[in-house]
From TrEMBL:
Belongs to the ABC transporter superfamily. Transmembrane segments: none annotated. Residues 229-285 are annotated as: Disordered. InterPro entries: AAA+_ATPase, ABC_transporter-like_ATP-bd, ABC_transporter-like_CS, Metal_Ion_Import_ABC, P-loop_NTPase. Residues 19-251 form the ABC transporter domain. Pfam families: ABC_tran (PF00005). One of its GO terms (molecular function) is ATP binding. It comes from the Bacteria. This is Metal ABC transporter ATP-binding protein.
Length: 285
């Protein structure tokens, strides 16, 4: 991302890790949900965030991408404290759930194109349809681009959200349970897409219930319990007889697909907040 026009501040943060969180505390209502989380994700790493339901995984990723303010502690993305200084165009975020019934039917390409919106300028850049098309190709949904998202399966809707994050061609991709409740073809398409992005050097922080199809890609696991990091290191091995074990066969789609996604998506810069209007669960309290 080095350019001739970068500012001194940008030069200073050029080698900074995509994610740095130091002693992050988050309180929601009366409850302390995160209690002193330290997390650093280096460029090019693929880190899985694991933990039981309610352990604080979603709260942590929402805090990292600036949706929730930390009660105390500090978060930096690419060396810049959360706020306008963060190069948001380099950050893609896929929230945990898709809202079930949006009032206005949006087509898949419209939802994806919302990932191109700048913070305060609600006008799509020229060529948005082509960019949306390319991003939808990455998740194998190009043929459904004019379909209303409500008519898609849950797995396909999730893929639309992933395409919305990818249309920005992010350097850092944060995903919250991207394959939970997702059908098998969507899981495989997702794993193949991730493999290609990782091969391209994308940094990934992904909340997962189980490693599943992504196991071959995950280099490090961070486990939360009651809002604290209780493990940060090697990913857990699949338990014998557990569902994950049967996923250890050959992954036909796990290799980068050279025939795809080679074109430059030429993606816009800008904070992603404007693109988050299709979810209901991402409004900070
Ligand atoms: N808006 C909120 N107000 C109060 N408590 C919340 C809120 N959102 C989540 N929590 C609580 O915070 C804890 C962690 O939630 P969450 O981060 O969603 O966990 P996970 O993603 O690991 O399942 C849970 O106990 C949950 O009930
Ligand atoms: Mg969650």
């Amino acid at each position: 991302m080095t350019t001739l026009t970068e500012t001194p501040a940008e030069r200073r943060s050029a080698g900074a890790p995509p994610v740095e969180a130091a002693d992050v505390h988050v309180r929601l209502g009366a409850s302390p949900v995160l209690r002193g989380v330290d997390l650093r994700v280096a460029a090019g790493e693929v880190v899985a965030l694991l933990g039981a339901n309610g352990s604080g995984k979603s709260t942590l990723v929402r805090t990292l991408v600036g949706v929730l303010p930390p009660t105390s502690g500090e978060v930096r993305l690419f060396g810049r404290p959360l706020g306008d200084g963060v190069p948001w165009g380099r950050v893609g975020y896929v929230p945990q759930r898709v809202s079930a019934a949006a009032g206005v039917p949006s087509t898949a390409e419209e939802v994806v194109a919302s990932g191109l919106l700048h913070g305060r300028r609600l006008r799509l850049p020229r060529g948005w349809r082509d960019r949306a098309h390319e991003a939808l190709e990455l998740v194998d949904l190009a043929d459904r681009r004019r379909t209303a998202t409500q008519q898609l399966s849950g797995g396909q809707q999730q893929r639309v959200l992933i395409a919305r994050a990818l249309v920005r061609r992010p350097d850092l991709l944060v995903l919250d349970e991207p394959v939970a409740g997702v059908d098998r073809p969507s899981q495989e398409a997702f794993a193949a897409t991730m493999a290609r992005l990782v091969a391209d050097g994308t940094t990934v922080l992904v909340v997962l219930h189980e490693l599943g199809e992504l196991a071959p890609l995950v280099q490090r696991a961070v486990v939360l319990r009651h809002g604290r990091v209780v493990h940060d290191g090697a990913p857990p091995r699949p338990r014998p007889g557990h569902e994950e074990a049967e996923h250890e066969h050959v992954h036909p789609h796990a290799a980068p697909r050279s025939e795809r996604g080679e074109g430059d998506m030429g993606l816009a810069e800008g904070p992603f907040e404007a693109g988050m209007s299709t979810t209901t669960d991402e409004v900070a309290p």
